[in-house]
Give the backbone structure.
Amino acid sequence: MGYSKLEKNLIDLMKEEQAKLGYRKEAVRLYYPLSSLNHLFDAEDSVDAMQERLAHFPEDMTAKLGMLTVTHKGDRFCFHILEEGSEYVHEHMGANEFIKELVELLWQHGTTMEQIRALFDRHADGVSCENIDNGEFDYLIRFPENVGDPYYYCFKDEGCHIIYHRFLPEDYADFDF
């Protein structure tokens, strides 16, 4: 189960990167703290135990993303994904995927939280939106569990534009906002 969660998260991060920066057939490096990897695997591994866990990936995962190399410095892990992984994500990213629409909306000047909320509502019923005042973000929006998008989307209105960051629920809880 942990490898499938990791695979989905790697692909989601690459989709987000390609939505923001565009696609290039190139290697990608993605970084994770040990705590996030432990959440994905529902584990409490040490750095060495996690490095050992990540030494061998399931065949169906490498069939999509190619050979992955994982290194770490301290408790920060680096996933090196070759060009074929970038290409796989690009070829399997739909033109109207939610993250692409969100990035395009936030690129526009004058985007409002109402427009962002409307985008979420177009993709699912029962979207949760909360005002939060934690010094970092103003709003937390998330899809209901049955939608398949597990992320917590946190938004900050900086006056001239709105920025966002998305977290897995467990990582969001770790911040103890």
Observations:
- The radius of gyration is 17 Å.
- The mean pLDDT is 94.
